[in-house]
Design brief:
mainly beta; globular; 360 residues; five-stranded antiparallel sheet
Length: 360
């Protein structure tokens, strides 16, 4: 057992060394701060298209971070002002004290592949900025969903196999991330409308539900080098490479089909208690969305470092901290622009949520 543990430790150390070497030639955030005692920290993953964006800002000291009290954000697309915002909201606060909070600045902006995006933030007398160019987006050619049943001993589990055909951007090295979610829209109708009840369908709400992807059957997503040091191969809730990052090393300039698994897609619906009311029928429209992000190498490295640091291996005392890429001028942090391609597939309409729930 001691020999096995030592081998595993050296494997982990070697993996950490490779990750450090991967970013050692780039500008990166200092692990042990030697720069200014107080500076602005700016982080954002900006997505192409007309969408709500978010930038995260803090005041960074050598041994602590503090929130900012006021801030002004400006976004330039190809050197022209495209958005500005002075709205501050609390993002993370572990100390029940606003001065310790990481603050977020929401704003709306539109940009596309090939656009140069520059983010500038002025806060509490400090100013920081970063630039990124949105890469050309790869394309999802097709998505196929296949219901299957997994049998393990006396237990059966309903799953969905999801095959995603990706068309690589030719001529360059590419870096990707894939995710999936279900969009839903719920409506209700009174079966026997009373005097004050609305007749006909009535919209209730809409939203999204994240689909957790199991990537263990896909070799370019799951290498078998476990993020969690205590990985149990029988644990069906374990997902390595949780961000589903990959590059095009094995399919450059070609198409490639990813094989993923998820819970039975019938289970992805928004349950509401009013479905139990005797005089109501609640219906739900659902759409599966598979989203492919295209990013540059630094953004890919940043995500990988986050994934490692959030794992039990990254939290081990004998593993040195990993330097994150840094592209912020006048402060520290990372701002990246990602291009997005969505593939949408209509899922079976749920005519009666109550019956659907009890027939799963």
């Amino acid at each position: 057992m001691k020999v096995l543990n030592n081998i595993n430790k050296w494997r982990v150390l070697f993996a950490a060394f490779l990750l450090i070497c991967a970013v050692s030639c780039e500008k990166h955030i200092e692990i042990r701060r030697t720069g200014p005692e107080r500076e602005l920290s700016l982080n954002a993953a900006l997505t192409a298209g007309p969408s709500e964006q978010v930038a995260y800002v803090t005041t960074s000291y050598h041994n602590k971070v503090r929130g900012v009290k006021d801030a002004l954000l400006k976004l330039y697309v190809n050197d022209e002002l495209a958005a500005s915002s002075d709205t501050l909201r609390e993002a993370h606060n572990y100390h029940d004290n606003n001065s310790d909070a990481v603050m977020m600045i929401p704003f709306h902006a539109r940009f596309g592949a090939g656009d140069k995006v520059r983010l500038e933030v002025t806060a509490d007398g400090m100013r920081a900025s970063a630039e990124s160019i949105a890469p050309e987006s790869a394309k999802i050619v097709s998505v196929d969903t296949i219901p299957i049943t997994k049998i393990s001993g006396d237990r059966t589990t309903a799953l969905t196999r999801i095959k995603v055909q990706v068309q690589d951007v030719s001529g360059i090295d590419n870096y990707y991330r894939i995710e999936a979610f279900v969009k839903y829209s719920i409506s209700q109708v009174y079966l026997d409308p009373g005097e004050f009840d609305q007749v006909g369908p009535q919209f209730l709400r809409k939203g999204t539900i994240s689909v957790k992807l199991d990537n263990k059957a896909e070799p370019i997503l799951y290498s078998g080098s476990h993020v969690d040091a205590y990985y149990d191969p029988e644990d069906t809730d374990y997902y390595a490479n949780e961000y589903n990052l990959f590059n095009d090393n094995v399919f450059r300039d070609k198409d490639y089909t990813l094989t993923l698994y998820a819970k039975d897609l019938r289970q992805y619906f928004s349950f509401t208690n009013i479905a139990f009311l005797p005089n109501l029928r609640v219906s739900e429209k659902r759409t599966l969305v598979v989203r492919l992000y295209t990013m540059n190498k630094d953004m890919y490295t940043y995500y990988n470092d986050c994934m490692f640091d959030n794992s039990l291996q990254g939290m081990s005392d004998f593993i040195p901290l990993i330097p994150y890429p840094d592209n912020v001028n006048g402060g520290n942090g990372f701002v990246g622009a990602l291009s997005v391609n969505d593939f949408e597939m209509e899922l079976p309409y749920i005519e009666d949520v109550y019956n659907h729930y009890h027939n799963l």
